[in-house]
Amino acid sequence: MFICAGFSRLGYLRAATRFQPLISLTNDDAALFIIMKDSLTELEQFINDFNLRQSNGVIAFTATVQFNDAGQTVIEESEVHIITSDNIGAIYFLSFDGQALPDMFSVKDHRFTYTAGKCLRIAGQAYDVAVFPKTKNTLQQ
């Protein structure tokens, strides 16, 4: 798969019969890009449905976080921060009480799915994480 563009001598985009590839993507790259976009869309829907974005743009709230790993379940309450932009989405868990659990997940490395009105699920290689917001905008400044 190629992302292509053609430019005239003056730098203007022109219709052309021959395009120069700017970026060459393999099928695996294209599939990863689609999964990342889908995960970012799910993350944004979760943020919007629970009204988690504060007026200053910060996304911070308290949640119950459920980790499922190899048949074991750990449930913790945590402060959660989310960072998003056009192609980036990451979620951070800031306050685990001494648990040896992962504290950062990105759309690049994980699959995010949103169950409307309920929770955000994050799937890793061998684990699943569910985020249940406790209240809206609980960490407003």
Helix content: 10-25%
What's the level 1 CATH class?
A: Mainly Beta
Rg, alpha carbons = 19 Å
Count of the domains: 1
Our count of helices gives: 1
CATH topology: PH-domain like
Say what oligomer this is: single chain
Structure summary, number of beta strands:
9
Quote the distance from N terminus to C terminus.
46 Å
Question: Structural class given helices, strands, pairing?
Answer: alpha+beta
Main β-sheet, in a few words? Answer: 7 strands, antiparallel
- Ranges where pLDDT stays below 50 over 5 or more residues in a row are 1-17, 19-23, 29-33, 137-141
The fraction of residues in strands falls at 35-45%
Which architecture does the CATH hierarchy give at level 2?
A: Roll
Largest beta sheet: what is the strand line-up? 6-5-4-3-9-8-7
Shape: globular
Mean pLDDT across all amino acids: 76
Write the H/E string, N to C.
EEHEEEEEEE
